[in-house]
Protein: 3-oxoacid CoA-transferase, B subunit
Amino acid sequence: MALSREQIAMRVAQELEDGFYVNLGIGIPTLVANYIPEGIKVMLQSENGLLGMGQFPTEETIDPDLINAGKQTVTAVTGAAYFSSAESFAMIRGGHVDLTVLGAFEVDQEGNIASWMIPGKLVKGMGGAMDLVAGAENIIVTMTHANKHGVSKILKKCTLPLTGAQCIKRVITELALMEIKDGAFHLLERAPGVSVEEIQEKTEADLVVPDNVPEMKF
Structure:
């Protein structure tokens, strides 16, 4: 059974470590804020100038002036700080973010990511993605394994304009958790009920499959 958007976010949250400074991109990554494991403290950073994002607000706690980089309303945890976007990007470019979680259109086996434009479609701009993939040592991509036509987005070589080159370490889709190393994707975990054969069928890139591939646990 393929993972839901929430389950993908839950699995990403298991990668968080106590004391991490984390930037969550637009889309599925924003949901990670709702699933931070108990017993650890992380500080979520937003490009528009907030360090210390909390969970999404309820109707009682919503503040329309408090938003993330994707213009979603958010909450702030105790100790949160506000600053200009220039200072925010100085943090990102200076390598002070421990983990970045991004969405993508395509990722390939060289660790390249295409996440910002599809030729012929209206694009508002790259946003902070280029800075984030250049400034963070640890990057996790959340995405669907294939497009709506069933064509793989896990590729030997990206076909769309790149956001960053040779920078992606791990990818979590609705089907699998994979690591990129030595010029190939390595299958680490599969979604509950999803077969290795289905993952192989929907992966255009070189995929290294160990003898035993455990199911994800939540």
Notes: The two ends are 14 Å apart (CA to CA). The mean pLDDT is 94.
